[in-house]
Design goal:
The strands form two sheets. The chain has a three-stranded mixed β-sheet, covered by helices on one side. Strands 4-6-5 form a three-stranded mixed β-sheet, with no helix packed on it. The chain contains two helices and six strands. By secondary structure, the protein is of the alpha/beta class. The radius of gyration is 15 Å and the shape is globular.
Length: 134
């Protein structure tokens, strides 16, 4: 058996709010609550288990999602429609822009708990191209 990531726990102020937010942006389903977790499963079998903890205990994490061009277009449309701030860079210095790293498209946005979310259409390092500034 090869090693695969199966699930991870994402801390949130409100597990349902954060799960529904991400599922909405990515066009995914929110699963049935299980104990303290509200799950969102990705197409590669990884489950993101959102768990409520005190806001002061949340440490910002970064989660990147590889999506198709069509999925990017749909997610980007939802981000713009819902007036969610987005950025071309992880330091949030280029608001309202997307990037074109490795010949694809990508952007960053924050979830309700303050985690940095990213959608990309090309994996980092693909085609051995360097990321572009815009």
């Amino acid at each position: 058996m090869s090693v695969e990531l199966n699930h991870t726990i994402i801390h949130a102020r409100d597990n349902r709010e954060s799960a529904e937010f991400l599922a909405h942006i990515l066009g995914l389903e929110v699963g049935t609550e299980w104990g303290p977790f509200v799950p969102v499963a990705t197409s590669n079998g990884v489950t993101l288990d959102f768990a409520t903890i005190p806001a002061e205990s949340i440490v910002m994490q970064h989660y990147a999602f590889l999506v198709s061009d069509e999925e990017f277009d749909a997610a980007f449309a939802r981000i713009k429609r819902d007036e969610i701030a987005y950025y071309a860079d992880p330091h949030l210095k280029k608001p309202g822009e997307i990037n074109h790293h490795y010949g694809g498209r990508g952007l960053y946005f924050m979830d309700p708990a303050g985690h940095g979310m990213e959608i990309i259409t090309q994996p980092y390092g693909s085609d051995e191209q360097q990321p572009t500034a815009s």
